[in-house]
Design brief:
Length: 371
């Protein structure tokens, strides 16, 4: 496999089986649909997938179309291992698969019982129960197995471990507890579950407060406050929140949300919402900050769409079209239907060709989800 292909696969390795679309595809147990989904997510053609699996392009095509089937267990197990999937989704039931299901069931019980133990004054017992579970789940994630149920369990276990550590560690070591709760923030935000996201942020903020890491607590909250203030068109609150983030940027560790790139998009959107399009246009003309490794992949798409909206407000149709074309390609590659819907709304009647392309891409994703 060439270096470009490896880079493309590794870029999305963390999340590609954790999406709702992936969950629907895996539930079908349809090998052809699973192979097509894997190619779509990684931007691979049939030859590249064949190279990964050790089959030629023609055979991959026949498998995807359902004209050939793999009946032998060894071949199906080989595909599961190559795509980093639990064996049962490709029709293999073996000890490894049984262990996987047992781990999920045991893990769910462990998290719940550890929380009961912590609330009953036995936080050290909760730590003892959660530590091996977290280690096992993280090892699985490092091996490339990032199914939705595994990531969700890992996020819950990390929060539980962090909160339990916050009860047993001395003050000088409480930052360790905050680091564990922080590890769940990206996963919680990715799933888009408002209740769970709120819970994780609340627990993390509490551990930061206990550890007296007030800068970290502010960094976790301020971007969300600025975005909410922009949506509410509350200019004074938006400006105050953005000023506070600017003051922290140079002295606080960056995260997937608290970094110059993500905050640039939040600032642009808030300026537009509070009636200061001229200032937003000036910022766009100055260029975007360079994304870093702390920026979640979807932020590139989010920022491109917002920049296009600003350029449309400046009557720069060409610049807006360029941004939205790139946004469509990235949204399709990352499987982001919500961002495609934003593109459709942004293009509307002013850029009908782009709106049509985004509409078609959204329809394809919806049909794949329905299948």
């Amino acid at each position: 496999m060439d270096s470009a292909m490896v880079a493309r696969r590794s870029k999305h390795a963390l999340w590609h089986w954790a999406t709702p679309q992936a969950e629907a595809v895996l539930a079908t147990r349809d090998l052809g649909a699973i192979l097509r989904f894997h190619r779509a997510v990684h931007g691979m053609n049939q030859s590249e997938l064949g190279q990964l699996l050790g089959y030629d392009k023609t055979y991959i095509s026949l498998l995807e179309l359902g004209k050939r089937s793999l009946e032998d267990i060894a071949s199906r197990r080989h595909i599961a291992e190559a795509l980093r999937l639990p064996p049962h989704v490709v029709g293999v039931t073996d000890r490894a698969d049984t262990d996987h299901r047992a781990m999920l069931q045991f893990g769910d019980s462990t998290v719940r019982l550890a929380e009961i133990a912590r609330q009953s004054g036995h936080a050290s017992e909760a730590v003892a129960e959660l530590w091996p579970l977290v280690a096992r789940l993280e090892a699985r994630m490092e091996d490339g197995h990032t199914e939705r149920d595994v990531l969700h369990l890992l996020a819950r276990a990390r929060v539980g471990l962090g909160v339990a550590l916050g009860n047993v560690l001395p003050e000088e070591r409480l930052s360790t507890a905050a680091r564990w709760t922080a590890k769940s923030i990206d996963i919680a935000r990715y799933f888009g579950d408002a209740a769970f996201n709120s819970y994780v942020l609340r627990m993390h903020g509490n551990e930061l407060r206990k550890a007296r890491l007030h800068r970290g607590a502010k960094a976790a909250v301020l971007p969300l406050l600025a975005r909410a203030a922009g949506v509410l068109r509350n200019q004074p609150l938006f400006d105050e929140a953005m000023r506070a983030t600017d003051q922290l940027l140079d002295d606080t560790e960056h995260t997937s949300l608290f970094n110059p790139y993500a905050l640039h998009e939040i600032r642009l959107r808030g300026l537009m919402a509070t009636g200061r399009t001229d200032v937003a246009i000036q910022l766009v003309e100055q260029g975007s900050p360079v994304p870093t490794t702390t920026v979640a992949p979807q932020w590139r798409v989010i920022e491109l769409i917002t920049v296009a909206q600003v350029r449309l407000a400046a009557e720069d149709g060409g610049g807006a079209a360029e941004s939205l074309h790139t946004a469509v390609d990235e949204a399709v590659r990352q499987r982001l239907p919500h961002q495609l819907q934003r593109i459709v709304r942004a293009a509307h009647y002013r850029l009908p060709e782009i709106r049509e392309v985004a509409d078609h891409a959204l329809d394809r994703i919806r049909k794949e989800m329905a299948a």
